[in-house]
Amino acid sequence: MEKNPFEAVGIVGLGKMGAAIASALVKKGTKVYGFDPNLKESPVSGVTLVGTLEGVRKEAEVIVIAVKPNLVEPVLKEFSKSATFVSIAAGVSFSKLSEAAPKGSHVVRVMPNLPLVSERGALAYFCEDDVVSDVERLFAGMGKSIRVVKESLMDAVTGLSGSGPAYVLTFLQAMTEGGLQEGLSYEESLALAMETIEGTLVYFRSLRGGDASLHPMEVRNWVTSPGGTTIHGLDALERGGFSTAVRDAIKRATERSKELGKG
Where on this chain does NADP(+) bind (predicted)? Predict the structure, then answer.
């Protein structure tokens, strides 16, 4: 991983995502100070727990707010000194963050996902121009980061990549159960399904390295022979509403993100 430009970063909330970000930062050699009133010890090796929010601010000028959406504003209002606050909460708007943070602070909206802990995360962010470089360097080495030009797109990011790992894992389990149903053991089926999903993505990414306009359906057609097994399998997926269900999942998650933003 690229070395982090900040000597220290604070993280408020060490749940799944907060801990994932903390772990990734520690790997980059960053000193991480965490605050979580529900924990007596840090779930991440290398993170120093601090007893108060002000204690976090004393140690770090960049603070990641990784609490539930309804707690973001109350937490920000507890700080008395300005800082750069990075919120990963779904639905909490830039304006609400700015109003709740101490005067003179910079605020950033980020929607990451869990694979960032393995350096393969997908995240998008919205912020002012003068902190773009800081955000890019903060999350450098954790995966693909994209700056959205309209804040409204953050809800779509939440529905797609923020919630996306759950969709992929559901598909993985469905493939595994399909193999199990046809006689493979669970472990055999799971191993084949995982390698198929990962291998296909690596292969497609490598192809797009030589042709950025290459469409997924074009490559899919390469393995879809007339009257063969694949076209029959694809037919079953479409009769089951697979593509529509995926689009609807993203739409519903996006709508929920908007609902959370309304309080």
Answer: 66-69
* Residue 143, φ and ψ in degrees, nearest 5: 140, -150
Domain range for 40 is: 8-150
67 labelled ligand-binding: yes
Start-to-end Cα distance in the chain? 37
Distance CA 154, CA 126 (A): 8
Is residue 139 within 8 A of residue 86, CB to CB? The reply is no
Count of domains in the chain? 2
**69 labelled binding-site residue:** yes
- Which tens digits make up the pLDDT trace of 199-250? 999 999 999 999 999 999 999 999 999 999 999 999 999 999 999 999 999 9
Annotated ligand binding at 112? The verdict is no
Does 104 map to a domain?
yes
Question: Which CATH number fits the domain that encloses residue 239?
Answer: 1.10.3730.10
